[in-house]
Amino acid sequence: METGVIRVLASRWQGSVLVCGKCSKKIGGGFGDKGSTPLVKLLRKGLGLKKGRKADRGVVEVKCLGVCPKNAVVMVDGARPDRWMLVPAGADVEDVVATLTDPSVPLPSPPSASRPLSAGEREGARPALAGWEG
User: Is residue 82 part of a domain?
Assistant: First the structure.
């Protein structure tokens, strides 16, 4: 293959979901009947996805996203990248799938970036990120 040449591969993905791998590891999976199944695995199953590029949507476990909540996993829906979701350990994966597939399911509004976060809003966030205005 020539250096400097970009190749393009076809994919059937209509969207993507990013799931923090560090959060998943910290809670030991945290989902499913026994509470030990990773969110990524249950999302792929719940969305009925095929493997790899043949899937309708990509569910990708990524390195740390830098939020690090307590007892939750950070998830980013590529269709709504401005709203990162904190999925608590043990949450019903069917509800998470509904949030991803049904646009009529509203997401809670994030706190305004113009005001500091309250103690309840930043619970579980690392102190360095508590007042972050990204």
Answer: yes
Tell whether 93 is covered by a domain. yes
SS3 label, residue 96: helix
The Cα–Cα gap between 123 and 12 comes to 38
Q: Which domain holds residue 66?
A: 16-105+117-129
* C-alpha R_g of the chain: 17
pTM: 0.75
In a domain, 27, yes or no: yes
pLDDT tens by residue, the chain, 134 residues: 567 899 998 888 899 999 999 999 999 989 988 999 999 999 999 999 988 888 889 999 999 999 999 999 999 999 989 889 999 999 999 999 998 988 777 776 766 666 666 666 555 554 444 444 44
Euclidean distance between CA atoms 51 and 23, whole angstroms: 23
Tell me, yes or no, whether 9 lies in a domain: no
Number of domains forming the structure of the chain: 1
CA 112 to chain CA mean position, Å: 21
Distance between CA atoms of 51 and 44, rounded to whole angstroms? Answer: 9
Secondary structure E strands in 6-134: 16-20, 58-62, 72-77, 84-88
